[in-house]
Amino acid sequence: MNESKANTALLEALRAQSLQKAMATQFPVFEFNEHNQRGANFGERLQSAFDSVFSQNFERVICIGADCPELTSEDLTTAANALSKTDIVIGPDLRKGMFLLAMNRYGYEQLSFEALAWQSPQLIESLHTHCQQLSIFFLNPKFDLNKAFDLCAQSNSTVLKKLLKVIRSTLNTATYHFNFLCSILINSQLPQRAPPMQ
Question: What Pfam family is a match for this entry (predicted)?
C-alpha cells in the first residue's frame, strides 16, 4: 500500500466515522461528495451544499468535514443548541481552519462565501472581518488532518491511538493493509507543521 492508498483508506475511515456521529444525533443528515457537489472552488461547493439544505426549509444547518477524528456527536448537539441564540457556530481546528461550520438562516443570508479565505490559515480572521454584524459561537479547537502522514506531525499519542482504532473498526480491507497503514503512520517522518490542504 503506497501513500496514496493509505490516504484514501484513511479518508474513507474518517468519512464513515463522521457520518456515524452525525446520524447518532438523530438530526436529518445530507452527504455531499465529489458526485453531487457543484462549484468551481471550495467556497462555491460549500455554499452550494448550504443552498441545497436551506432550500428544503431548514432553519439551521450544521456542516462538518470528514477530517476531524476528535469530532463527537455532542459537538453537533452543542452547535445545534447554540444556533438558537447565535447566527454562526465555528469549530476551529488547530491550523486556523474549521472542522465545523453551522449557521441559522439569517447568518447564512448575511455571509459572503466569496469573501472568505477558504483553505488558508486566514479563514477565521476573514470570518471575523466579514461577519462583524453577526453573533458567533466557538466550539473548542480540535485536531484535523488532510492525509495519512499528518498524524505523524502530532505528538499527542492519544489522538493517534484513537484514529488507529477508528481505522481498524471501519476498514473492510485485509489485516495486511491495516498493519501497513499503521506502519506508515507511525514510522514516517514529517515536519512539525503541515500547511492547510490546498
Answer: DUF2064
pTM above 0.85, yes or no: no
Q: Write out the three cell numbers for 93.
A: 481546528
* pLDDT > 60? residue 186: no
Bridge pairing between strands 60-64 and 98-104: antiparallel
* CA distance linking residue 194 with residue 169, whole number of Å: 27
Query: What is the average per-residue pLDDT within 99-117?
Result: 91
Query: SS3 for 123?
Result: helix
Q: Report how far residue 16's alpha carbon sits from residue 22's, in angstroms, rounded to the nearest whole number.
A: 10
Of 40 and 163, which is predicted with more confidence? 40
Tell me the domain boundaries of the chain. 18-138
CA angle 68, 157, 168 (to 5 degrees): 60
The CATH classification number of 18-138 equals: 3.90.550.10
